[in-house]
Amino acid sequence: MLYYGILLAAVTMFSFQFLFNGIFEKEYGNGLRAMFVFSAGSSLVGFLILLIINGFKFEFTWFSLLMAFFAALDSIGYTYFSLKALGRINLSLYSMFSMLGGMILPSVVGILFYNEELTVGKGICYALLMLSLLLSSKKGEKKSGYFYYMGVFVLNGMSGVLSTIFQNAPYEKTSAAGYSMLISLLALVICLLFLPFVKGSTEKLTKKALVSMGGYGVLCRVGNYLLLIALAHLPASAQYPFVTGGVMIISTIISLFTKNKPSKREITGVAISFAALIILMFV
Questions:
Q1: CA–CA dist 220, 35 (Å, integer)
Q2: Dihedral pair phi/psi, residue 201, rounded to 5°
Q3: Which of 14, 34, 36, 127 is 20 to 30 A from 21 (CA-CA)?
Q4: Whole-prediction pTM value?
Q5: Are 125 and 277 in contact (CB under 8 A)?
Q6: pLDDT (tens digit per residue) in 46-90
Q7: Both ends of the chain: CA-CA distance in Å?
């Protein structure tokens, strides 16, 4: 149960990070330059907080560097598709694409390649979570941009896939904190290298935009670091559905304190998610 507690902490962070994406998109836009600026700022903050968590110790192995490079590219791409998608659909529908990808792809990889068992409990949990996501989502006002929605689906899922590969690989590797630091550092370097050559808005960042980058950097990087810790003890096919259902539940609780109160459909979806998590943990 300890590692489900760690997952719960990560889920809480992920539930809030979506808000920072939306704030930045409204303040600075969603173009290619905005993506590099947001990724650079959030990666810098994420690297610094992870450096503190790791006791100011920097770790390195060649395998970790290679995996961190792919994870950094995935993170940058996910940021770009997220900003684009949020300019076209509401947060609810965006979350559905993101959470479905984050649940399905790592779970499938765990079952197909790492001999994780597809139990009856997991099967029921997957079905209930998909039903819950469909009930909770609202259609966006604009129907264009499915390319960006699928990008969010695939790239959020690939984040979990890369973490699963890293955690299960037999090669010499860093700790979870060291690996997360490498991802943040590489993402920062990549963004800074490309930023001077990218056209777009060069206006100053507002206070809200700066806060959104910092907040996202802390929540995203620390949240993924906690996922890596839990992944060493929990199968991917159980961990990522838990994250999906948990984010839905906590996001709805958060919305109770905002102007956009959850609808009866959303509350029903959350109740189904809660039932799915109970089944996942005890069946």
A1: 15
A2: -60, 130
A3: 127
A4: 0.84
A5: yes
A6: 999 999 999 999 999 999 999 999 999 999 999 888 888 777 766
A7: 14
